[in-house]
Amino acid sequence: MALLEIKNLQLEFGSGPGAARAVDGLSLRLEAGKTLCLVGESGSGKSVTALSIAKLVACPPARYVGGEILLEGRDVLKMSARELRAIRGGVVSYVFQEPGASLNPVFRIGAQIKESLKLHRPDAATDAEVIRLLKLVGIPAPESRLRNYPHEMSGGMQQRVMIAMALASQPKLLVADEPTTALDVTIQAQIIELLGDLRRQLGMAVLLITHNLGIVGDLADDVAVMYAGQIVEHGPAREVLNRPLHPYTQALIQSVPELSTEVQRLTAIPGTVPLPGAFPSGCRFHPRCPKAQPACATQAPELLAAEVGRNVRCPYSKSEIRNPKSEFAS
Amino acid sequence: MNLLEIQNLKVHFPVQQRLFGGAKEFVRAVDDVSFSIAPGETVGLVGESGCGKSTLGRAVIKLVEPTAGRIVFEGEDIAGLSGAELRARRHRFQMIFQDPIGSLDPRFIVADIIGEALDIHGLAADAAARSQRIDTLLKAVGLDPSHAQRYPHEFSGGQRQRIGIARALAVEPKLIVCDEPVSALDVSVQAQIVNLLQDLQRERGIAYLFVAHDLAVVKHISHRILVMYLGRIVEAGEARSLCRAPKHPYTQALLSAVPVVNPDAKRQRIVLTGDVPSPIHPPGGCPFHPRCPVAVARCKTEVPPLRELEPGRQAACHLAG
User: Fold this and answer.
1) Of A90, A104, B252, B320, which shows the fewest CB atoms inside 10 Å?
2) With an 8 Å Cβ cutoff, are B240 and A262 in contact?
3) Which of A186, A221, A323 to mutate to test the interface with B (most CBs of B within 10 A)?
4) pLDDT grade, residue B25 (50/70/90)?
5) Which burial class, exposed, middle or buried, applies to A262 when counting CB atoms under 10 A from its CB (0-12, 13-18, 19+)?
6) Looking at residues A104-119, what average pLDDT do you find?
7) Across residues A126-136, what is the average pLDDT?
């Protein structure tokens, strides 16, 4: 049994004809101990999908139209408030983008981590355990840091505290929603290394949400690329990055400049990212797609197996292009 | 002649003093920085948050008052100018901001956002000339002239950034300071804006000071790159050679931390320990020594000057060479 299995999730904001379907028929599997990366731009539905795993999206305005989210075999969407409290932290923990906004500014960080311990492991709610957790996430001199307020720490340190807090309850799944987006590259590198180490040490599964393809290769076993509320490509991270099959994944990889390569001009994706409620008909990427056919405007493609272990939502993906960047580097 | 010559520029901000507080303290946001920009050249300015890169970008065009130093723009020192004298020269240097929402007035239609710049500098003879000029500018940045009657909230992030660029272009500047112009945009839209900036440079010969934290983007767009750490330039050089063979340990670490899409790329990541130190009390000696993986005893006591290692390449490190 997979640790997490999302089947045909459909989530809408608002109601009636004006409802915006932010997530449309999303299915995912994550095995225990594995890392899955969910890649997408703003409005693609990646964050609401992540929040749905512990049913953290406020309903209303959101409404689950269909599908199920099986966490250890039980459907999160059908759970009572008491059951939800038990899985939040107990099975799945979260790390968010803005550590400064997620920490309570008026409590010392030691007390905030202890609060998480009191809820999930009351016997371990001691200073010694808090210090062990702070050490685990690589905070130097944790004994003296216990009594710090969040504002006395840098962004990178605050994010480490958030991770310590998420780990306090010993979750089986850590959901990290853009954990490094607000941080500098040197600090981002530290946090990515830390997440990789922790995953190996503790054997937990990680669902990493990001818009940065560069950090996918560092951490992920598998990657799912989202566009306009749907998964457009899903497969092993290495293969997807080296040989993307969907035109969107290809365009996304080509539009990002890289240090190791020289290009005169970036290959830009024309147009703008569609917003929920205004997704185009047919294939949702067709207005921006360089390979669009007349049929793409009307026929919505299905997510189908293109090769072993690889799913693609594009009937024309056979005309593949090798990622030009991998040839430069190798 | 260089378009812009910055000589020994310093920007120090006073820190709030304690009631009976000891000596007056300063944040040395920019500390003795010198560089130049040629006409039509793009100079990239990179560094971590808090290194002073945005302050330097603003000080160069006098949006922040410099504490000391000279800002020679087309042969004239503008560091001491203010009021009407400065306003008369502002059409030659403009700025594009990071946040395209925050930098556009939500109550103005696009025509007035761009037109205001024309009005201030008296660049449109009458209403017809003004609206024709606005149409031309909108076309130049890839927007439709019919967009002139809309408000900023009706546009996407990338389109708003195009409006910001059109506003900067309106007065036909020689230099545009771009402060993180693509970091607030979606990945798929960033390339559009980078390409637009390059096209405009080719057509109009504008010079850019491109301030950003994304090294890959900076390398792509810049002719030369300046690397800043704690208010000082620690390395400067031609963009490609600097990225290929960085001399300063900080540049090396910064480059190695940049995420790479290709999962097979072999690389040695230098993970720096610790954070950027406080610019109020920077470490003695080389400001980078507490985080430097190769620091020696001398680095703790002696400040390394920015010295020329080879033609066109400078670094502030005792060990580089």
Assistant:
1) A104
2) yes
3) A186
4) confident
5) exposed
6) 91
7) 90
Give the closest residue to A180 by CA, choosing from A209, A220, A202, A150.
Answer: A209
Contact A154 B275 (CB under 8 A): yes
Q: How far apart are CA A258 and CA A323, in angstroms?
A: 13
- Does the model's ipTM exceed the 0.85 cut? no
Q: Are A171 and A198 in contact (CB under 8 A)?
A: no
Q: What is the DSSP letter of A88?
A: B
B145-150: list long-range contacts, CB under 8 Å, 24+ apart.
B147/B110, B148/B109, B148/B110, B148/B111, B148/B114, B149/B109, B149/B110, B149/B111, B150/B109, B150/B110
Residue in A184, A189, A253 closest to B261 by CB: A253
**Which one of A46, A157, A239, A256 makes the best mutation probe of the B interface by having the most chain B beta carbons within 10 Å?**
A256
- With contacts defined as CB-CB under 8 Å, which chain B residues touch A260? 260, 262, 265
The answer to whether residue A69 neighbours chain B at the CB level (below 8 Å) is: no
Burial, B143: exposed, middle or buried (Cβ in 10 Å; 0-12, 13-18, 19+)? buried
**Side chain identity at A129, as an amino acid letter?**
E
Beta bridge partners of A88: A92
Residues A148 and A109 sit within 8 Å (Cβ to Cβ): yes
- Chain A: residue whose CA lies nearest to B276: A154
What confidence tens digit (pLDDT) does each residue in B154-209 have?
888 889 999 999 999 999 999 999 999 988 888 888 899 999 999 999 999 999 99
What pLDDT score was predicted for residue B218? 94
Whether the CB of A216 is below 8 Å from some CB of chain B: the reply is yes
- The structure tokens 């042969």 sit at B75
Cβ of A189 within 8 Å of Cβ of B257? The answer is yes
Query: From the list A215, A269, A329, which residue is nearest B265 (CB)?
Result: A329
User: Is the CATH number 3.40.50.300 carried by domain A4-91+171-258+266-329?
Assistant: yes
Residue among A140, A214, A268 whose CB faces B192 most closely? A268
Residue bearing tokens 């809820």: A119
Domain spans of chain A, in order of start: 4-91+171-258+266-329
What tokens were used for B102?
């925050």
Q: Would you call B194 and A266 a contact, using CB atoms and an 8 Å cutoff?
A: yes
The Cα–Cα gap between B195 and B207 comes to: 15
Residue B83 CB partners (closer than 8 Å, separation 6+): none
Contact A214 B263 (CB under 8 A): no
Amino acid identity at A73:
G
Work out the burial of residue A20: count CB atoms within 10 Å of its CB; fewer than 13 is exposed, 13-18 middle, 19 or more buried.
middle
